[in-house]
Amino acid sequence: MTQTKLNLLTLNNNAISVLKFLHEEFTKRGKEIRLVGGSVRDILQGYDPSDLDFATTATPEEMMEWYYGRNKFIKDEIYAIPTGLQHGTLTLMLPKNYGNIHSVEVTTLRKDIETDGRHATVEFTDDWKEDAARRDFTMNAMFLDAEGNLYDYFNGYQDLQEKHVRFIGNPDDRIEEDALRMLRYLRFRLKFGEFISFYSYNDPNLETLKRNKHKINIVSKERVWTEYLKICEQIPLYEIENWFRLLNESGLGEELGFPYAPKAAPHFPTKAFRTYPHLALATHFSLKDKEPEIFYKKYKLSMKERKDIDQFMDLRYTHYSEYNIRNAINDKNIPRHIIMLGYLAEIKDQHDYHGATIFEISTYEKKECPITAQDLIDLFGYKQGKTLGAEYRQLYIAWQISGFELTREELLSKANPPEK
Q: In sequence order, which residues have a C-beta less than 8 Å from that of residue 323 and are 6 or more positions away?
């Protein structure tokens, strides 16, 4: 084990303040508590994480005895919520806010007794190394105590500094324990690993992923979708394209039914992927073989997400003329942001970028047809039925062809009275 002493005075952040507070709480009861996992990794990179995980030698029963049932409205008291008691995890609500940190998760040290690729049966332990050994990557298996001691059993700090995302022990064993780790590996590879050239890369675990790709099918689609959303939240656009590449090179994309990424969309805003992650997939769906519909059912996308993708797909390979833009807004009722994203997704280089098109999409105000079917009933004596519908449709098309410019009077002048 590598043990490094950190100067906590140089790490004056909220996470360290919480660590020191809980250290006092647990040591006065004869127990140890340390920060663990991503919290430690982020601190080592100079961040002040707000999502904190702690490991402790205290048992769930002891923590429940200390903190469960307390009045949460009493100042200066911790109270516990048993969020994952069977796994040894409690959420501790803090007596005051440390920046935006209101609560933390605390889990008893544990080791895996049995795993099935999705869930683990655990046994509690007091061995810190055993707990570290059950984690996924070396950079996620470090502990930090309130005195600044970094406990690093698998050289995670060195891997973090050298941008190596490395499984703990045998990668096949770690994947056997939880198959979602294959997707997590790709995310960590692109977020913390070495830069991947678009033209060449040599990923040391690609063959491991290929060998185990079939195991991803036992993971619930909800967990897969959650992992995909994390991809869109945490890494920049050019790395999202690399994620698609690695997903397909490993064979995981085919297993999951994710679309193949044939091209980059360099002008599709990263922020849009954060806000509309489902549209990131729509840039890669095929227009044939009902690929979107199959994906919708598999991942149980909401009706709103489905509608967004359908409208986005309707714009694929569109010529973004003034007429087509106005038609999309007025006739197809496609939201402005989807039209904008559709246009940006089709741009391949700066030469294709037209400021006038962006201006048109941004500023054009949706128009309503200036006449209604009721006008034809009131002014021309039409009755409800197919004849009325056909006449109104002809007038609507005339308005559409005019670029949505014909006035009410001009349209009514084109109306034909019903045949007697």
A: 403
Distances (CA, A) of 18 to 49, 92, 101, 141, 268: 11, 11, 8, 20, 39
What Å distances lie between residue 88 and 52, 56, 161, CA to CA?
A: 16, 10, 31
Q: What is the Cα–Cα distance from 207 to 389, expressed in whole angstroms?
A: 62
Mean pLDDT of 226-234: 87
Q: For residues 362 and 340, what is the distance between their CA atoms, to the nearest angstrom?
A: 8
Q: What is the mean pLDDT of residues 45-49?
A: 88
List C-alpha distances in Å: 152 to 20, 55, 141, 276, 339. Answer: 20, 14, 7, 38, 50
- For residue 416, what is the DSSP state? -
Which residue(s) pair with 121 in the sheet?
A: 114
Q: How far, in Å, are 59, 133, 238, 336 from residue 197 at the CA level?
A: 47, 32, 10, 34
Task: Judge residue 317's burial from the number of C-beta atoms within 10 Å of its C-beta, 0-12 exposed, 13-18 middle, 19 or more buried.
Answer: exposed
The reply to whether the predicted model has a pTM over 0.70 is yes
Backbone angles phi, psi at 142, to 5 degrees: -100, 150
Q: Is 187 helix (H, G, I), strand (E, B) or coil?
A: helix
How far apart CA 119 and CA 217 sit, in angstroms, is 14
Half-sphere exposure for 23 (CA within 13 Å, toward CB): 14
Burial call 385-404: b when 16+ CB within 10 Å, e when fewer: eeebeebbeebeeebbeeeb
DSSP letters along 247-259, please?
HHHTTHHHHHTPP
- Token pair listed for 178: 């939880």
| 3-class DSSP assignment, residue 101 | strand
Give yes or no for residue 288 having a pLDDT over 70: no
Given this model, what pLDDT does residue 262 score?
47
The number of residues in the chain equals 420
Q: Which amino acid is at 17?
A: S
**CB neighbours of residue 311 within 10 Å:** 19
pLDDT, tens digit, for every residue of 365-381? 889 999 999 999 999 99
Measured over the CA atoms of residue 328, residue 320, residue 336 and residue 239, the dihedral's sign is positive
Residue 178 DSSP class: B
